[in-house]
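#data-curation
PF: Archiving a pair of folding outputs for the training set. Convention for this channel: one message per protein, sequence first, structure tokens after, nothing in between. First:
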Amino acid sequence: MSEKFYDNRELSWLKFNERVLEEAQDTETPLFERLRFVQIFCSNLDEFFMIRVGSLNDKLMFDPKDRENKTNMTAKEQLTEIAVRVKELLPVKDLAYADIMNGMSAYGIQHLTGDISPDEDAYLRAYFTKEIQPLLFTGVVDKKHPVPFLKNGEIYIGVTIRKKDDAAGKVTFGILPASENFPRLIWLPGTGKFILCEELISRYAGLVFKNFEMISRCIFRVTRNADIAMDEGLYDHDVDFRDIMSELVKKRKKLQPVRVEFQGKPSADIIEVISKTLRVKEDFIFRQKSPLDLGFLSALERRLEKQSELFFRPLTPQRSPDIDPKRPLISQIQQRDILLSYPYENINQFIRLLDEAADNPDVVSIKITLYRVARDSKIINALIRAAENGKDVLALVELRARFDEENNIGWSKQLEDAGVNVIYGLEELKVHSKLLLITVRNGDNISYITQVGTGNYNERTSKLYTDLTMMTADRDFGSDASVVFNALTVGNTVESTNKLLVAPKGLKSRIVEMIDNEITYGKDGYIGIKMNSLTDKDIIRKLAEASRAGVKIDLVVRGICCLVAGIEGDTENIRVISIVGRFLEHSRIYIFGKGDRRRVYISSADFMTRNTERRVEVAAPIPDKRLADRVAEMFEVMLRDNVKAREQGKNGKYSHVVREDGEEKLNSQLYFYEKAYEAAEAAAPVASVENAVTVKSNKVRVKIRRVKR
């Protein structure tokens, strides 16, 4: 066994972000949406440096000889490759931004970056003097004034200056922060021309240092390590865990820098001062032409919102045809399982279940795991109302959901104040499962409503991410869910369950068993997996073993994939595709076998070691053949996507799926939306129609009507 079928996790992630950048270059994507993809590429990269590069820097410091377990690279080797690859991608990002802004000129929008007219200069100079300069904090760096603390992600202007009356005098370094006190986007009155706040400050920095000659200036930003870890010793029963997390969030903002970005052409003097002060090596100093932070897009969008051709055509999540809006949802679930598919179907139908449970006198308890919730959450409101109505409500709030810690801390306090029993994740394990258990008592009869999902209980992301959620009255599901919650309540993990697969002890081993079972069928075996990332080495090796046995394997992996397909003698029977499009592919689907022996699961777990071994995750089989057929059909449609799918080659690189001559285009995401509209219309005859929408689905124009109900 050669084991040449591995890719490095970090480099695979960069390939994923390159696919995001390709969407910004796609001229068939509306112009402003292309700009949004540039922003996503940049924000993805920010998080990558804060977490993954931060973690590698820590490893380089404490265990430099350690090698990762797939490509055998040290932390130093990985960091070197990351720096090289990022420096290849940034010019592509700059070209994409320039091309998009050039296209915006047809709509009267112009980003002022070069020479300006005397009238423009007069206005901007006056604006700077009146609105910016009085609030501007200035800092000169010398022996008495060290470089001030540079905040993570904040934009600064660096200047080199010299006293005007001393031509041969010492060059001094100065810093000006472009803080949140100022509007980021500044428009020239009566025009579509704008300049960014940091560019305005840089242009007129000479007015701040009046007695100095301006030698050079630049715009820069610092990225700091944000990979805070939870020390086991912090789990002291006498300390409020929320207070610990609050302190760790504060600590994150002060950790060691891992990257410095410069916009424009910084002088060697400025680079030297910044790099020495922050102890950042040249490899991780990045120069780019486009803005360092595209957070100003929301303000630009408001200016352009009437130009509908610049944006994706509006699409509205539909009501599931399996749900009767006139009947109680709980009784409908008791009759048959219900599956919802986001964003194509509306999450409000799931929220309706919580609302009913909160008010139903027969419901005695509601238990739920919360990982990421919306800022203005109807789900939280329903849980609070249930507690106020006397229900026994248990909410496990995972305070360690990265970058959502502060939001979750706030929600945990509100829930607790309302009488909800709030618990947190286990000491060494995050709880990432998407699990809800509603217990109903009717006389002496106890029954359950169980919901298992692939995505968060979050109204906002349900419109942006593709996810699946299943609601069932199956008693075995309810009993398993009860076991999970009972274990979490006392700080334990689940040893065994009947139907649900529960990590860390009961998911990976069962997955391996099912792969082994397919191996026994050889060429008649089949495995289909959809997930965000695949990094678990044990599972990768087992999939390669199945491939060598002749099992056909289809993998739909949006992000990181450490398995390289198509390697002769190892992974030649494996196909890997990645779909990157309008919506973020987030659902996890596992399919084992064909025909009568096929088993279909949905899950919260990617096949990453952190998910399979270090988190509480739940996967659920879909017992209803009608729903299992639907999920399997969705998987098949994704495999046929020839618009937004990229296929991995045996060199580990991804390229768009090639269409055969005469083959019709298929964008799986638009296809699913079309089907959701059609199903909703068929389930509810049209009384009146408003906001008729035409979805351009490749070559075919499909008329979609929004039904007024």
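PF: Second:
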Amino acid sequence: MKTVRLTMAQALVRFLENQYIAYDGVEHPFVEGVIMLPGHGNVVGLGQALRQETCRLKVWQGKNEQGMAHTAVAFAKQMKRKKIIAVTSSVGPGAANMVTAAATATANNIPVLILPGDVYACRQPDPVLQQIEQIHDLSISTNDAFRAVCRYWDRIVRPEQLMSALLSAFRVLTDPANTGAVCLAIPQDVEGEAYDYPESFFQKRVHRLARRLPEAEALAEAAQVVRTAKKPLLICGGGVRYSEAHEEFKAFAEATGIPFAETQAGKSAVVYDHPLNLGGIGVTGCSAANEIAKEADVIIGVGTRYTDFTTSSKWLFREDAKFVNINVSEFQALKLDAVPVIADAKRALPALLAELKGYRAPYAGEIEGARDRWAKELHRLQHIEYKEGYVPEVNDANAASQTTVLGAINFAIDPEDVAIGSSGSLPGDMQRMWCARAVDTYNMEYGYSCMGYEVSGALGVKYAIGDRDVYAMVGDGSFVMLHSELLTAVQEHRKINVCVFNNASFGCINNLQVGHGNDTLCTELRFRGEDGEHSGPFMPVDFAKIAEGYGCKAYTIRSLPELYAALKEAKTIEGVPVVFDIRVLPKSMTEGYGAWWRVGDTEVSENPRNLAAYEDHLLHVKDAKKY
């Protein structure tokens, strides 16, 4: 057996260089590159290896560990999980910063490889800088925090251990049913230790993306349930997009006449104006999808996890509704006591359609009626006007509603441009209102709803889509929380468009807070007043100046005409990020359309409004499904 003597870090990089993925006759490298924020723990060992061993891999400089990891998550999401970016940080705070992003990846079933530096495996210099000492267990470090948020976790305490760890890591990263974040903690002394690795370990390795076929018995049982349906409904989940079953899903709906609703992850698998597309479903859904969902007797979920936002905390569907779930994950397929079809959507949908030959959903105008009613409401939301003389406390007199601004952006950008979002009220507005005019143009992280994903994620999307434009929809609260990778975009000459919806508040949570009987508390961006509370004037933050300081092109938007002019001019800009500081009216987002969300109302309170909210809570809980 021929061997080559390499340090553990050099072996790691050489292995990453030679990992490929194959599917549907396509083969390409699986790891695009590494985003690095150097520090003690990765700057010497892994840093040297990246300089020496990289041939194909790109290396980017991160600015904040959470931000750069979110960039990697968004990249993999846009690439339909068929390419990844690895991220590496120092020990201690640098590693801890990535825990949030790892959780974001795992919650959304998105593969990302986390490589945090670690304390010394030999323990001789302990305690080292940034080390946390646990007196009950000296083997614990900051990186143990990743155990709870990763699909696979390992610590490389000997250089030869790297081989089995990497094989396990890539098993998970390339597994459609069980993918997510993978953490390989790399102690800084072991990174530089050498071993005689087999040369065969570094040969080209092709990970074949298996498309699991449905079992005949499962198809027959599922078809039997669907054939009984008088008002069936399809739910298009993220699995449709990740398996690239766009055409198969659309063909199934068209052949059977079954309308479909979209989850956040499934949106843009089919364009918005398809006659069977009911739009977003659930808590952040629109009236069309929720009206049909409430009457549906059979729900066919394709690639969905059935989060509480999709099911309205299991309240949305009829008590006697039956479920058929198509999913590569057995865990997900069995939810809601469904008939499970454990298979890849691209293979399962045509097979189920063949079993249903001749079946046609007996709708008689309900789909068209629901779509027409929503179209009128959508038009209203896109064209809200306030009476002359209305001057809100926080905004300029000409500021528009959030829904009007969102509608304007939607149809001012090109159909092939990608919209990205994550947190606050914008995901609700976007799932309801955003009209995807081309496939795979919607990148919403809503499995974890992580504030700060939007700007970092926009950079990841830009790495994935090349010359097309990406537009991040971000609230002012989320922008303040994390926008570090805006500087990376400047550094890399990557044009990302960041639309900051500036309403001087955490508007979504303020609505939730007040809507359940509470007074405003820490949800508005106000100065502290003379009464000791945050009751003073709203804070006049100039986000355009912040962006200009980084080297971005920035626009201050205070009216719709200014917005249209800025969007038009920005299309001519190349190689520079663009930030739009858009004043929007507070309390001007969309509200629920026949949905409910369980948030844990207060059973005991001195405030009668809290008690009223709790009574409403009890009524909904009584009607919710119990599984």
